[in-house]
Amino acid sequence: MGSIVSMTTTTFVNKNGEKTFGYRMYDDHDNSYNNMLTEEQCQLDDMDLLNFVVYNGHFDERASDMLEFVKMNEMCMIINGEAYEWDEIKETLSNL
């Protein structure tokens, strides 16, 4: 069985102190990040965040591959440190 995919909201701080907001998505094989969210979007609860990312296409090819892996294997996913079973995320990921 493959590794579990995690998604964590993140505040990115540039060298000049400018802040951007987004998430990191990663597993044992790859990683991706997005810094195109607003601070308010990063405050969404975990399932609303996953819905927002999936429905608005806020992911790159690597993140898409990880989400497809979760969907294909009907696996759990960790969002902001909280584990979500397949039954909790399958409706959202069915929209990929």
The main sheet comes to: 5 strands, mixed
Domains, number: 1
What structural class do the secondary elements suggest? alpha+beta
pLDDT below 50 for ≥5 consecutive residues: which ranges? none
Strand coverage percent:
25-35%
Distance between the termini: 22 Å
Rg to the nearest angstrom? 13 Å
Helix fraction? 25-40%
Number of helices, where a helix is a run of at least 4 consecutive DSSP H or I residues: 3
Keyword list:
single chain, 3 helices, 5-stranded mixed sheet, alpha+beta, 96 residues
Describe the structure.
- The chain is of the alpha+beta class.
- The protein has one domain.
- Helix content is 32%, strand content 31%.
- The chain contains three helices and five strands.
- A five-stranded mixed sheet has the order 3-2-1-4-5.
- Strand 1 (5-13) and strand 2 form a beta hairpin.
- The radius of gyration is 13 Å and the shape is globular.
- It starts with a strand and ends with a helix.
- The model has no long low-confidence stretch (mean pLDDT 94).
Topology:
Elements lengths: L4 E9 L5 E8 L4 E7 L8 H10 L5 H13 L3 E3 L2 E3 L1 H8 L3
Parallel strand pairs: 1-4
Antiparallel strand pairs: 1-2, 2-3, 4-5
Q: How would you briefly describe this protein structure?
A:
This protein has 96 residues and is of the alpha+beta class. The protein contains 3 helices and 5 strands; from the N terminus they run E-E-E-H-H-E-E-H.
